[in-house]
Design brief:
- This protein is mainly alpha-helical.
- It has one domain.
- It is built from six helices and two strands, in the order H-E-E-H-H-H-H-H.
- The chain has a two-stranded antiparallel ribbon with strand order 1-2.
- Strand 1 and strand 2 form a beta hairpin.
- Helix 1 runs antiparallel to helix 2 and helix 1 runs parallel beside helix 5.
- The longest helix is centred in the middle third of the chain and has 27 residues.
- The chain is globular.
Length: about 170
Amino acid sequence: MGSIRHPEFFKVFERSSLRAKRFGLRIIHFAILNHKIQLLVEIKKQEELHMSFKSLNTSLAIHLKKKYFQLHGQKHHGPVLLGRFQMTVLEDPQGTKDKMKKLYLEAAWEQKKRNYPDHFSSAPIFHDWQALLQEEWTEDFNHEFTGEEIKQTKTICSLPQFWLNQSGWKS
């Protein structure tokens, strides 16, 4: 269907993540890539993970199926997101730091350019992204985010509650 790095999809992702928050999903960091979304989340109970991802996936799938119909003039049959995710439990500071770097840099690598981070990620409200990426980045950081980009990102993301995501990754 083409890239999901589009303002229309971002709005759907924003609404879907708000809906999933009601079930306990706490998105700490995210990056929307061309064909996938990377999330770093926190949950308190396993049941919250299941219910919140079910909510998120359902909302996104409804939008993507409508978009598919608009583009191709026929209904999409079958699951949209089933089997298209990977879960890794982060338990140590270095593993968390490595996953965060990958989350923020993969879009730049995917597009073969260095104009990243952009507003299709949680970078507008993650003030430590420069320090995190300093080892990987060779250019100066001059990126400024708009008030609207910051507002949208704050709607999607939650502040980390656990040490590992608050400051443990800096260890």
